[in-house]
Specification:
By secondary structure, this protein is α+β, with helices and mostly antiparallel strands. It contains 13 helices and 10 strands. Strands 1-2-7-4 form a 4-stranded antiparallel sheet, with helices on both faces. The structure holds iron/sulfur cluster (2 copies).
Length: 314
Amino acid sequence: MPKKAIYSKLIKEESKRLGFLSCGISKADFLEKEAPLLEKWLSKGMHGEMSYMEKNFDKRLDPRKLVNGAKSVISLLLNYYPSKTQNTNAPKISKYAYGKDYHFVIKNKLKNLLFFINEHIGEVKGRVFVDSAPVLDKAWAQKSGLGWIGKHTNLITKKTGSFYFIAELIVDIPLEYDNPVNEHCGTCTKCIDACPTSAIVSPYQLDAKKCISYLTIELKDNIPPHFVDKMDNWMFGCDVCQDVCPWNRYSKPHKEKEFSAKEELINYSMEEWEEMTEEVFNKVFKKSAVKRTKYKGLKRNIYYLKKQTKWQKP
Ligand code: SF4
Ligand code: SF4
């Protein structure tokens, strides 16, 4: 077996041991197909107030501009599908935010993987990425054969659906590379039809400004009045397009202790969320991704949910 193939095999085996769902590898190169699509998306202003998306345009499309001497992009998936979901009589939180902030959990695992590579393969320079720098993670995961990008713009796999995080390790050694898989959305349009705010403006195109995830997390201003009745009881993020995707019937609960939800998050009713003090917020969401919206942001979101013409008790 050529050395590159042995190294790739070792890395994939270790990633499994560390708890990743899957691992795929691509040559670090310019993302030719994605470049015009990203440019068009930005020029249409579909990124809303997320001005950081405009920065580092070149780096976003070429990992060699991000990491000196980059040769390979190792993409990894980490399952976050929970075994228990929230009380149905409560404002909703996206499943990815139930447990400890994924940035901490995944970074640790990636650092361990890089350490393993240095121990078993030789001196390798690398950099770990979890949402933290301009890397088009879905494009790299797709290139590496980990899944296909569905019409809702998330990565999907046939065996495990789409409830997982994507992370990358960019390294300066050549490895054996994987090939993309076929897409399996076919004629399905369930995600487009179910989106409460019509944010999936056409297949594979998301207007982030209209997405409930953006409105509840990224948007710092008030939620525009025409969205108030469309919030579908979400107070942090939104899972509708993933929940309706037929491939997610294959999602299996994660085994990551750190992603377990606090009892309060699962059991609180609307009244308890409404009455939540900042002190309780800090306790329930200690080291949680929900902290991103801060106490004030979560309270704002709850305020708007109560303003829905009819508070939609499920
Ligand atoms: S996350 Fe929700 S609002 Fe955003 S595209 Fe999916 S269904 Fe629509
Ligand atoms: S709901 Fe249907 S169209 Fe949307 S991502 Fe899933 S399979 Fe593709």
